[in-house]
Amino acid sequence: MIFKTKAREATLAPQAEAGPDGRERLRFFADELVKANEAVAELEVRLNRLTGIIHDADLAHATLQQAIAEDGGLALAEYAAGKAQDDDMAQLVQAKETTAKAAAAARDALPNVQDMLSRARNEVTRLEQLKQDAALQYLKQRADHVALQYKRIFSALCRSHDQLVGISAALSATGQHGGEIRMSTTPMQVPRFDLPSVADPNEFLPTMTHQPAENAVYDATASWLEARNRLSQDAEAELDDLIGPAHERNDDDDRAH
C-alpha cells in the first residue's frame, strides 16, 4: 500500500489557474523594461570595451613618443637597423602597431554601438513611462471600486431624501400634527470624480446633482398619510406594513452628528 502525505496530495492535486487581476499590462511593461535595461548594460560594456581599446592605442603611442624623446631616437634607430629586436623599444613599437590596428577597427565600430546604445536608452525611457502609465491605470481601476461605493452611498442618500420630502408633505398635510419638516428645497449635490463609476457619460460635470423623484415622493407621502390616518383612529394601529418597523436608536448620539 502506498501512503501519501498531505503535502504530497496537495502537490498532486490540480492547481487552479490564477485569473486576470488587472496587472497584465503592468507586468508586461515591467518584464520588457528588465530586458531593455539588460540590453543597455550589455551595450555599455561593449562601448567601454571599444573605448578602452582606443585609449590603450593612444597610451601606447604616447609611451613610444616619450621613449623616443628621452633618448633622442637612439633606441629607435637601433631597432630600425635590426639590432634591438627584443629590447624595450621593440616592445613599445610592437605595442603601438598592434593597438593602432585594433583601435582603427574599434573606431569604425564605435558609431554603430553608440547609436544602438542611444536607441536602447530611449527604449528604456519609453518603457518606464509606459510602466508608470500602466501602474496608474491599475490604481485607477482600484480607485473606481471606492467611486462605486461613493455612488451607492449617494444613491441611498437620495432615496432617503426623497422619502423625507414625501414624509414632510404627509405630516404637514392638515397643519395640525408634525408641522413642516422640510427646511430647504435646494438640490442635493456632491463632488463628482473622473472615474468610470461616477463620471458623466456625456460631458464633464463637476458635481452629481439630485432632484426629488416624483414617484418616490408620492409613494412616501401616501404611506405616511395612511399611517397618520390609522393612528388617528387607533393609537395601537399596526404601521410596519406602511412605514417599516420602528428602530431603537440613541437620539442624543444622532443629534451630536
Please give a structural write-up.
The protein is mainly alpha-helical. It is built from seven helices and two strands, in the order H-H-H-H-E-E-H-H-H. The chain starts with 5 loop residues before the first helix and ends with a helix. The model has no long low-confidence stretch (mean pLDDT 87).
Concise synopsis of the structure shown:
68% of the residues lie in helices and 3% in strands.
Helix content: 55-70%
- How far is it from the N-terminal to the C-terminal residue, by CA? 70 Å
Low-confidence stretches: none
What characterizes the major β-sheet? Answer: 2 strands, antiparallel
Number of helices: 7
Q: What characteristics describe this protein?
A:
7 helices, 257 residues, 68% helix, two-stranded antiparallel ribbon, mainly alpha, 2 strands
Please describe the topology of this protein.
Blueprint: H1 6-12, H2 24-71, H3 74-80, H4 88-171, E1 188-191, E2 207-210, H5 214-233, H6 240-243, H7 251-256
Antiparallel strand pairs: 1-2
Helix pairs in contact: 2-4, 4-5
